[in-house]
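User: Run a structure prediction on this.
Assistant: Running it now.
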Amino acid sequence: MNHLHVVMDESGSMQSMSTTIYAGARELVDDVAENGTVCITRFNSNVFTGTDESPTHAKEHMVPRECNGSTALYDAICSAINQTLTNHPDAGNLTIAIVTDGVENSSSKTLGEVRSFISQAHAKNWRVVFLGSNQDAVMTAQTMGIRPGRAMTYGNNESGARSAFRSLGEAQRRYNSGNDEAFTAPERQASIGSYHVYDAQHKWLSVDPRTGDVVPYNTDISRRLETAFDNNEHCVVIDEWNATVFLDRDGKHMQKTASGERDVRRAEIGSTIYIRNLRQNGFRICDNGVETQIL
């Protein structure tokens, strides 16, 4: 690629994984052309927009710093794309990689503004990719206008993060050679790794009907679902995804958005669920099929 812009989360929750994340980011720089440029925008409660550097200098400066504050994700994306539009208006083969472990919680920019900037990037045939932990990254990306094949959930641990960056590099190389750049099912499964345990007995998860990914809900949404389930409520609205989870007393819960639906389960730790590809209905949870152990 000719230009790489990494949008890197440095909020407080990233501290435990910052070394691994930056190691992965440095590997991405290896795919930038020798005469290309690299920029890194860092963010927590504030946004620190970087400047263009040579690949060699960028790798030297891609080192972890102290992580703190909250997650101004929208502000960071808008700032990064705006800077790229200004400095590289006619660039081709350009990638903007967004990496976070949380959802937006402190920006002044709106979701509509984010979607506008991403639309401008797509209009120039730029590649915008999204890696997210502690969330359904594909769903989050779609709300911002990022293509599902360019988004992937990674496990909130070292192995998940390393696998995600390796997969991101492989996808970039497929893109450079004109092949299908979408993350593959094995890449997605490897990046999720071991699921984060939300409580001692249960966790809430969904199955992406397009990929078969088993995606755990983040801690906040999982607790909201657990509370609603315990209180015999019928649904939980997830505003950040424009989604609603409908709770079923028989355990066959369903998440619905304007664009589709997916199966949701409250699974006991150590249990097994079965996933099958029902073709036109996509991947669904069934009585038999491919086994997935809930760790």
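The CA atoms of residues 3 and 37 lie 5 Å apart.
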